[in-house]
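Q: Could you write out the predicted structure for this multi-component system? I'm mainly interested in how the pieces pack against one another.
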Amino acid sequence: MTDSETFSVVLFSGTDDKLQAAATLSVGAAVMGRPVQVFLQYWALDAFRADRITKDHGVAPEAGPEGAAALASHNGAHWSELFRQAADVGEVHIHACADSMELLHITKDDLDPLVEGIWGVASFFGAADGPVTFI
Amino acid sequence: METTDITRSIDARGMPCPGPLMSLIGAIREGTVGDMIEVLSSDEGSKTDIPAWVAKAGHELVEVADDDGYSHFVIRKVR
């Protein structure tokens, strides 16, 4: 079921609320047959480190204490699990930005296996057809 | 719909989006053609997502009904 436009998303923010939203969008796109291309930069890439992927990454400041509590009590699957489910049912590719890898002084071995590989920006745009979403 | 027609029943009430849909997809993948899968969901998103996915994936939505605080779907695995 890959007969429609790719959902291409750049993840920059590493807070759990934004990653949860991005993972939910990715699941939706994947189940509806759209290929998904995820490109990880900066703090989102940091959140995909194998040793901390399920740790608390906080929430965006706009959440406030009430929003943080709401997310903490949300009983849905963790965003990393949602990305795994998306990859299981559809075509989902997750790559790390080479420049951000250097910035964080990490290598592929530091990342969760959800991350397929390391790409430069041009490679991402080579794979991302259509509009690009930035979260 | 007789209860005996149901091959598998999934009680996804209390599970947030996209949990009920993912449970349905899992059951469809594990099942065989002709299976009748029942899903109970209290997630509002399911009301649009389950019909949308069933249509896209080429299965059949046999029954949709609203009950007290949740929706009831029956899906036939077509392929």
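A: Regarding packing and overall arrangement: The first strand of chain A starts at residue 7 and ends at 11.
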